[in-house]
Design a protein that fits this description.
Helices cover 39% and strands 19% of the residues. It contains 13 helices and ten strands. The protein is globular and about 60 Å long. The mean pLDDT is 94.
Length: 358
């Protein structure tokens, strides 16, 4: 089977960053007389409730769904596929317009309320109380902070963290720091080609990342009327299982052994909690605080700190994961995507192309 390789990954956040290397490779591909199939992550301005046009993807799971489609296209004979997302959340919208567009379940049912209701049903299913949920939420944010410090390294300063007002409760279950909807201008690109084209471009395997497998799970419907079904997260377990089975790899074992990286989706604490359970990284909710003391579940600081606008956090994570895998020492990485209130789930497993985990 054709290996599907990410040969370039680039982003700018609030105009910081550079996409030149990716764009130069795109130009070289076109100079060879080859087309590049483009898959678009739609911005906030796209009508949330309208059908998705061909090769367009919407929701927080969109980048993982686009990655699955890119892999499918390359295996099917496309030579090059570009996944791109652009959304200027900070500068491209007036505040009232931004709030209106983000009210995807109506003006009287904000996302904070929707996720509070979802978390309540999730807790009921697992037989635990709100105190434990808040304890785990605090442990999650401390985990993100450590990853964020490590990602920034020498560039980190305390001013990069939220100020004290964001640590106050917004709902009975969430503080401001627990609710992630980054107010940033984001642009990101992933260039994906077959192995033969990578060689023609002179791109070494050691500077490429393979899309080893992608698993997707989707329920028939989203929104407040479907919370009970979403909160079971069976479709997340299915996505994770399908990804690992396709790769013939026990990711949880590799991650616990310190041989792999993870970027869980962290929009609200219930989502990474569900991922940790669905993946088998923990057996019960009570185990999460102890697990988090030993393992970082993001490489960026999550959506809460690492930032990626509206439908683009998983694209931001895929780009960051690409670079981390090339820097080492880990050679495996998993990225999770969560769409809407959670009715779409996606899991992608990436591997340094010059390395084979087996």
């Amino acid at each position: 089977m054709t290996r599907t390789l990410i040969v370039a990954a680039a982003k700018t956040v609030d105009a910081v960053g550079c996409q030149q290397q990716c764009r130069m490779l795109e130009d070289r591909i076109r100079s060879l007389g080859l087309r590049i199939r483009e898959l678009v992550i739609e911005p906030l301005s796209a009508d949330w409730h309208s059908p998705e046009p061909e090769d367009h993807f919407r929701s927080g799971c969109a980048p993982i769904e686009a990655l699955a489609r890119a892999r499918e296209l390359v295996i099917g004979g496309e030579r090059a596929v570009l996944i791109r997302g652009e959304d200027h959340i900070k500068s491209g919208y007036e505040r009232d317009e931004r709030l209106r567009l983000m009210s995807v379940y109506g003006p009287d049912y904000p996302l904070t309320k929707a996720y509070t209701d979802l978390a309540g049903e999730f807790l009921r299913r697992h037989g635990v109380d709100a105190d434990l949920f808040r304890e785990i939420s605090r442990a999650l944010f401390e985990n993100y902070k450590l990853s964020y410090r490590n990602a920034l390294a020498g560039d980190f300063s305390p001013e990069a963290l939220p100020d004290e007002r964001w640590y106050r409760p917004l709902t009975p279950l969430f503080r401001g720091v627990d609710c992630a909807n980054p107010l940033v201008d984001f642009e990101g690109r992933l260039l994906i080609v077959d192995e033969r084209l990578a060689r023609e471009l002179g791109v070494a395997l050691e500077t490429s990342v393979e899309i080893r497998a992608v698993g997707l799970g989707r329920l028939d419907a989203d929104g407040p009327g479907h919370i009970e079904h979403i909160a079971g997260y069976g479709h997340l377990r299915e996505a994770y299982r399908d990804c690992c089975e396709a790769a013939d790899l026990d990711f949880a074992a590799r991650f616990r052994a310190g041989e792999a990286l993870l970027e869980a989706y962290t929009c609200y604490p219930v989502v990474p909690m569900a991922f940790l359970l669905a993946s088998g990284l923990v057996d019960v909710l009570d185990d999460i605080p102890g697990f988090l003391e030993q393992h970082s579940i993001t490489i960026t600081g999550g959506m809460n700190l690492g930032r990626g606008a509206w439908n683009n956090p998983a694209l931001n994570a895929l780009i960051s994961m690409h670079h981390r895998l090339l820097e080492g020492p880990e050679r495996l990485g998993m990225v999770h995507g969560n769409g809407g209130l959670g009715y779409r789930q996606g899991v992608a497993l990436l591997e340094s192309a010059g390395f084979k985990a087996g």
